[in-house]
Amino acid sequence: EAQVTQNPRYLITVTGKKLTVTCSQNMNHEYMSWYRQDPGLGLRQIYYSMNVEVTDKGDVPEGYKVSRKEKRNFPLILESPSPNQTSLYFCASSRGRVGYEQYFGPGTRLTVT
Amino acid sequence: RKEVEQDPGPFNVPEGATVAFNCTYSNSASQSFFWYRQDCRKEPKLLMSVYSSGNEDGRFTAQLNRASQYISLLIRDSKLSDSATYLCVVLDDYKLSFGAGTTVTVRA
């Protein structure tokens, strides 16, 4: 089954404790991205990757890191989480960036206390 | 000004009704437009693309008005299963911008 998976689905952590949210897709998509979704705001892009070893900042990259060592995986790293990073996070992949359907993972609900 | 703006709703409609809502965008050079559906904080899924001439997919009709910079979505013969948040998505300069969504609730 074609899908994007994320882990963990739910996470409660404390300020400053490093964490990683994994994202994996099995569709051989070149383009992957991370979004956060907050009430009253649209999805905002954090980082994206056009291909292996190619990553770039989205609209809200502060406080986040990513890596793309393999085509299928695109982990999101929070080196020192803060309460304002409490949010619902989605990973997405697509065949290409321009105009192609975005396939989203199931989401990770993160709470930082 | 937000790049993509939507009326958050909620639009509460009875089964069988027609409901329509718009989305405005700020960049007149925007290239492509889409509607995504999101169920109760689950992942968004593509509902349909929006073509310049307007297009239908079953009970759903999408239209684009470039002069006034808005797109619309109309749902005919609403079903309970249409209850969801509908996200307007605009592509410009290789960047996707998402609206905050319009919530539709269909009641029996």
Key features of this structure:
A: 113 residues, mainly beta, 4-stranded antiparallel beta sheet, B: 108 residues, 5-stranded antiparallel beta sheet, globular
Write up this protein.
The complex is a heterodimer of chains A (113) and B (108). Chain A is an all-beta fold. Chain A is built from no helices and 11 strands. Chain A has strands at 4-7, 10-13, 19-25, 31-37, 44-51, 54-57, 65-66, 76-78, 87-94, 103-104, 108-112. The N and C termini of chain A lie far apart (36 Å). Chain B is mainly beta and 108 residues long. Helix content of chain B is 0%, strand content 56%. Chain B has no helices and 11 strands. In chain B, strands 2, 4, 5, 9, 10 and 11 form a 6-stranded mixed beta sheet that branches. The model of chain B has no long low-confidence stretch (mean pLDDT 94). Classes of the chains: A mainly beta (113), B mainly beta (108). Chains A and B meet through loops of A and strand 10 of B.
Topology:
The complex is a heterodimer of chains A (113) and B (108).
Chain A: E1 4-7, E2 10-13, E3 19-25, E4 31-37, E5 44-51, E6 54-57, E7 65-66, E8 76-78, E9 87-94, E10 103-104, E11 108-112
Parallel strand pairs in A: 2-11
Antiparallel strand pairs in A: 1-3, 3-8, 4-5, 4-9, 5-6, 7-8, 9-10, 9-11
Chain B: E1 4-6, E2 11-14, E3 19-25, E4 32-38, E5 45-50, E6 55-57, E7 60-65, E8 70-75, E9 84-92, E10 95-98, E11 102-107
Parallel strand pairs in B: 2-11
Antiparallel strand pairs in B: 1-3, 3-8, 4-5, 4-9, 6-7, 7-8, 9-10, 9-11
Short recap of the structure:
The complex is a heterodimer of chains A (113) and B (108). Chain A is mainly β and 113 residues long.
